Amino acid sequence: MAIGKQKVGEIFEGFALIKDVKKGTTSGGKPFLTLVFGDQTGEMEAKLWDSTKEDEQLLLPESIVLVNGEIGQFRGKAQMRINAIRPAQPTDGVHIADFIEKAPVAVEELKDRIMEAIFEMKNPNLQRIVRAFVKKYEENLFLYPAASRNHHEYTSGLAHHIVGMLGLAKGVHDLHPEIDRDLLYAGIILHDIGKLRELSGVISTSYTTEGKLLGHISIMVEEIAQMARELQIEGEEVLVLQHMVLSHHGKAEWGSPKPPMIREAEILHLIDLMDARLNMLGRVLENTAPGEFTERIFSLEQRSFYKPAFSVKTELDA
Amino acid sequence: MAIGKQKVGEIFEGFALIKDVKKGTTSGGKPFLTLVFGDQTGEMEAKLWDSTKEDEQLLLPESIVLVNGEIGQFRGKAQMRINAIRPAQPTDGVHIADFIEKAPVAVEELKDRIMEAIFEMKNPNLQRIVRAFVKKYEENLFLYPAASRNHHEYTSGLAHHIVGMLGLAKGVHDLHPEIDRDLLYAGIILHDIGKLRELSGVISTSYTTEGKLLGHISIMVEEIAQMARELQIEGEEVLVLQHMVLSHHGKAEWGSPKPPMIREAEILHLIDLMDARLNMLGRVLENTAPGEFTERIFSLEQRSFYKPAFSVKTELDA
Amino acid sequence: MAIGKQKVGEIFEGFALIKDVKKGTTSGGKPFLTLVFGDQTGEMEAKLWDSTKEDEQLLLPESIVLVNGEIGQFRGKAQMRINAIRPAQPTDGVHIADFIEKAPVAVEELKDRIMEAIFEMKNPNLQRIVRAFVKKYEENLFLYPAASRNHHEYTSGLAHHIVGMLGLAKGVHDLHPEIDRDLLYAGIILHDIGKLRELSGVISTSYTTEGKLLGHISIMVEEIAQMARELQIEGEEVLVLQHMVLSHHGKAEWGSPKPPMIREAEILHLIDLMDARLNMLGRVLENTAPGEFTERIFSLEQRSFYKPAFSVKTELDA
Amino acid sequence: MAIGKQKVGEIFEGFALIKDVKKGTTSGGKPFLTLVFGDQTGEMEAKLWDSTKEDEQLLLPESIVLVNGEIGQFRGKAQMRINAIRPAQPTDGVHIADFIEKAPVAVEELKDRIMEAIFEMKNPNLQRIVRAFVKKYEENLFLYPAASRNHHEYTSGLAHHIVGMLGLAKGVHDLHPEIDRDLLYAGIILHDIGKLRELSGVISTSYTTEGKLLGHISIMVEEIAQMARELQIEGEEVLVLQHMVLSHHGKAEWGSPKPPMIREAEILHLIDLMDARLNMLGRVLENTAPGEFTERIFSLEQRSFYKPAFSVKTELDA
Amino acid sequence: MAIGKQKVGEIFEGFALIKDVKKGTTSGGKPFLTLVFGDQTGEMEAKLWDSTKEDEQLLLPESIVLVNGEIGQFRGKAQMRINAIRPAQPTDGVHIADFIEKAPVAVEELKDRIMEAIFEMKNPNLQRIVRAFVKKYEENLFLYPAASRNHHEYTSGLAHHIVGMLGLAKGVHDLHPEIDRDLLYAGIILHDIGKLRELSGVISTSYTTEGKLLGHISIMVEEIAQMARELQIEGEEVLVLQHMVLSHHGKAEWGSPKPPMIREAEILHLIDLMDARLNMLGRVLENTAPGEFTERIFSLEQRSFYKPAFSVKTELDA
Amino acid sequence: MAIGKQKVGEIFEGFALIKDVKKGTTSGGKPFLTLVFGDQTGEMEAKLWDSTKEDEQLLLPESIVLVNGEIGQFRGKAQMRINAIRPAQPTDGVHIADFIEKAPVAVEELKDRIMEAIFEMKNPNLQRIVRAFVKKYEENLFLYPAASRNHHEYTSGLAHHIVGMLGLAKGVHDLHPEIDRDLLYAGIILHDIGKLRELSGVISTSYTTEGKLLGHISIMVEEIAQMARELQIEGEEVLVLQHMVLSHHGKAEWGSPKPPMIREAEILHLIDLMDARLNMLGRVLENTAPGEFTERIFSLEQRSFYKPAFSVKTELDA
């Protein structure tokens, strides 16, 4: 059964991952638990009324449970009222990995695309640095989300974001062959790798102390310098790559102490923006009916988007 | 001889278009003329010292002259000191069209690309509206610049900008086929057509009264409504197309009274930004030596861009 | 009995209009309804605890009910606890119109004042356009509020706002006869007519899709062009009137893609501001005791206003 | 002969007031003087080439001279080239007062209007304070400009501004009799009186040290307190009047440490804005041809205003 | 027992000051009271479920009660559930003064430090004005907090803030003896004295009408003028002192109509900022464990601060 | 003879350093040179009219010349008209170092103060890192200015700035011993060391490519990481020191991608601000007469400062 597809009035019965648990007390003074359940299809808040001390000890974040509950509504959002719940047991044969949202493209394919881009590079300095980073972070690079929320916030989200950007970059380069494609590809692959140190992990992603005090941009600018020293690379490519990463948020208020001052850095910034926005909009509009507006989207300046009705019709007529 | 390629210390002798003329008086009280000469390769300021009443009457903007002058320097820019000058005569066989900067792609090719995009559209309402506008503005659409300055500020600049954006849109659509390509193409072709009424023309482009009081966005939102009425088209496409045009500057401070609230409107805005910036950067960097910074670019937030030296080398080595 | 005059601790019994209904569940899991009751004197929130399915089906927005309830307090605001409630029946002889807040001036008088202003105009182009719009929107122009909230948010609010502005304009013109009064009057009467398409109606006013995607300013700029074509009017008045409407919010951040660039447009903007603020302040201060501060007023930059005690005394002494 | 009416190519011969003098050296190393001449019709820059030590000693600011010069043009503005110049002599019978721009209404009439407004007041506290201030600053109040530039920047400009605002206030009060007219009138008469200490005087107006360090708003808030103590007035009127003055610039960025928090303070701010803008626009448009745009106006956010052609026609037809 | 030191799960029994009381109704419709208890160690919210009319009459703000309750948690903060409560009686021997948070330095010491600074002054005008103010406000100056919240928000907080700033000023003057120490000391002692009229008092501090309409800065600028007149002091010191107070918030958006335009005014602003921030940070970090982040601090731009773990170790090793 | 002390009308004859040279052409078409002369007392612009090719070859930046010229005035600033000029010869016995402005404290003393601070540190990790940096940059650290303009823009300016800040830090720590003094000292000494790579040098200081693309903050964050690796230091001190440097500009718009999130980082930011402002103000006020305003100071938000007259008198009387 799919958490993200439940409708108000239905009964849900099945396994789910506990993503968050909070204790509360009703205004009448009774204890209850507010849980967030999730699986690959989405998330839902749930209430366990009259919870016990035992419930508190058993129902832990990042564990799987078998749950039966009724889907109601609270402030316009679906909310489950739990009837019965128990932790999953080894014999249930369920695995955390099956309950976490994943990129819509297989990891192997993401790897192939990134390796292909590296293979196409002709500048040996850029190629060696990029290759070394992909090797260094081999595991997490294909596991981490691209952000704790907002866009590509799912397993392999970072690699999915990189591959999406490489696609856009190829299109731009085909039209403007004067662009240094190697530099653009290198910037794309490296630009967010600092997030592997900025974010805590894949489930219940939060910020590390290092992430809060330095941020993924400064972390990566430093890593590039160190990697170049290790590989004994000394060309201007090192400085320029550092600048690509440093400036990719576009301006100071958005976290880049220097704005893009190289053509490929400017393009990197714009492609990053476009891929992130296409991802956010795609995910929200998928769940919006034609002729309706979406909810306000926080990271798109609180805008609410309209999904025209005619696009669907044109498609059907075609 | 090419105005845009002259170097300090050289003597220029040849024909040039007068783009602007201003009268001045030296601190010693003597009259002189400051002219701006131009041809397809660029512009240069020139001084005619000790000018006469007759000079003032003969040397008019938008006329062609034969000029001999010495190239000096003023505030870091090349400036010509005119030795001799006379208006071109019919027997000289020179034509204004040969002295105006043009898009780097032939008009016929620009036309073909736009017609091809219209031909690919499946939504009849969008297709009919777009086709009708291209027919209505057939002449100027392929003649006007996209702006009086900043980007695509040359003959056929508007059509060149449209074609550049269609290319980017195709790339985005290939990666994200869920996007309504017809809507995006329609938005791209129409988004700046209001400039044909906002701007005065091709040479010495300025703003019309209508352009100043309403702006090209409001002009076009109104034209779409009128065209739809003329074509007796009533679907939601009309409203959505108007919104595409209305919101393409992205936010209120930049001239769009409504921000993009449709996915394709958001993409239109980002593609517009990207094509304009690629055009500006391309033109500036073409005249910048590797390893140097450009001058500050007004419409890129006064940034000065660096042209890495290694890109050239990689290219040569390849 | 008057909803807007109830005090904490009293029992309300009488008819009221349901302006909004929302379903909720107590933290103990029991269903209840939150209603907003209204009549010509104001609004009040009410709670119907332990509501039934039947309640949900009977108690619909925009219907009238007979209700008995106790007035309590919640977060500093009066709130009714419903004891008994039933839908009004035909035999009750109550009409929706009697429960909606109205402008403090009779519709007929508002009509007279606007017609009088049109009659005074000497410029035939302006006069014909304005007259045609008043005829076209005859019904709604005197029915709609001027906004969904903030100022003149009651039946005939738009016409009341227009008449208030005409009064201020007359005063300004008397002092500065060099102002083009016809143009100013025309701008005042037309400036917000786009709201008749932007807003959904009179009760529970919300935004239409067209209103969200284009906004009342762009809607009206387009309507003026169309009306002029229909009336075959071609003078500069059309462009200038469009600019008056386009610029009346004063600056880009407030929704006007062009700032006022004509004297009368600047005055229109300032008079609009003044009439809206006088309306808001008048309504809030009416319910504020001398020597007290009002609540923070959202659309007056969250300011809280003080009502001096001496004004009343001076008045009484006079 | 009128300085402000000279046209390029004419010869000016007549008396003028020297408003400013600066010494310069040509790039050829020769001394010259740049003077600003003025009379009641306007100002003009002038150059005295090859000036002598004696010239420097004789041609002093705020003195009158007899001058003969040719009107040329410099950067789009008229500029005089001086042929002959000598200081005015007692026998010339010219007086500084005849060369300074004045309010277009006679001082006596301005006085009458202000006294009339005071006479209409019923609140004795407000009336006594206002009367005392008018008495205290009797001379300068009817002499000073309202600002060193921007609006009402001429002799009696302050009183002219007050009278303009009183007219607008009367109009607003007639429509909204619930407004405390006495308070509004008091606020209007006092709001800018601090400028009598902030500004240096009537000719070549600059800021005093006190004006720079405290500003006219703080100066006046303090004066009201002191005046009330002298008159032994203790009611809330004192505090409220101080607030009226304190908040009349509308918000912190514009110099008011508190925004208007009383209805009449809000109206004072809006009326101040309207009278200042009407004054600026009126003066600029008077010198603009129908169908033309004005120059950019600094204190109207650098906007350039259009003067419609049809207003004039309507007037003529009427 | 200490309110500020209670931990979740404990039972509190002891006296406490009621700082605030609000009535509420549960979603089940039952009345309850929300109280804020305080003593010298801090504050805590408490709930009295099923409260009676009698409770409402007895449990008043600024009274002391004997309370027994269980410490639970609500939204991450400790909250007491009241078991039993009664007003304190004369025989209980408790005094309000013992329940109010105090500056960590004795009032006598604060007085000594301020008098010492005055004693050191050599400029007789500055010294006499400052001495007169300290005498005039003798009582409240050593009683009031420096603000209603944010920093130094406890009894004698204002004097504590002054003394902290005098310490910093001394350090700056030692390094830069060219600074006018008398002026800086005078500015420090007077800068916030307007708060004695802006704020309502020591317990449950709120803003007075005068405080809201004028603010402590304008109040004090005026008081300085009045005091100087009373003392018949006329030197430039008066104007300069007024400017020190007027500009000490640093810029218009922060409440200073003029920015600092005198060296000592600039230093006063910076020292004010530093002492306030040191106070806020010190108090928050005291309650934060090494290696942890604080909650977001409202008046430090919502920043959350990290307390390094190593500082403690270094200290212990030392 | 001192360049910075020359008065209008005097003749200067002596040696000077050429800091800048630009070629120009008079409006009459003749070549001239504009030079900037400097010595330890200041700078002055100079004109060499009718310059020759030989002049251009001999008069090079960063060379010393013997010059005779007359001091005139241009736009309110002193300007020299050169009568005679020749390059200095070995036999003249003049040295560049004698013509460059220096910190007002001897380098040896600056060194002593910094070493003393390092010696006082108890935290071995912080101490070793700081000591290593002082050793690494031994030469330039005591040679470079702290900025290319604005504050401490003279030889040894960086070290002078560090020492000024250490003095302020000591004062703050004495009053607030809970502050981690070692961390604060370390942050102060390292915070601007990145400028040794950001700036080009001591004379005619400009920005390096690295300085433009990365900035001194990012450069130093990276250097700290590298230094810690070299010294094999791994404690939290490294991360915290990096944060100190990263955040010392206070907010994103001022170049710090993270705001201060550690108490000592906040203090570092405030002390940096205070020392820079004291330095700027001190230097400007030194050349301002009592009772006068300074020119507008660019990096103090274009403010003009007043120098009270009474401070001097108090000093004299003392």
UniProtKB/TrEMBL annotation, chains A, B, C, D, E, F:
- HD domain span: 161-277
Q: Name one Pfam family in it.
A: HD
Write out the entry's keywords from A to Z: Hydrolase
**Is RNA-binding there in the keyword field?**
no
Q: Which PROSITE patterns match?
A: HD (PS51831)
Record-linked InterPro entries: HD/PDEase_dom, HD_domain, NA-bd_OB-fold, NA-bd_OB_tRNA, YhaM_exoribonuc/phosphodiest
Q: PANTHER family per the record?
A: 3'-5' EXORIBONUCLEASE YHAM
UniProt name for this protein: 3'-5' exoribonuclease YhaM
Species of the source: Aciduricibacillus chroicocephali
Q: Which gene encodes it?
A: yhaM
